[in-house]
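REQUEST ID: PR-0412
SUBMITTED BY: lab tech R.K.
PRIORITY: routine
TASK: structure prediction, single protein chain
INPUT:
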Amino acid sequence: MQGNLPPVKRVGEEDESGEPVDSSG
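STATUS: complete
OUTPUT:
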């Protein structure tokens, strides 16, 4: 039961921090 999970991060999109998301996550 996971309800506090962050939005899915995909490669190419910017993370919440504003940094580009890498395949490493």
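NOTES: DSSP finds no helices and no strands in the chain.
REVIEWED BY: pending
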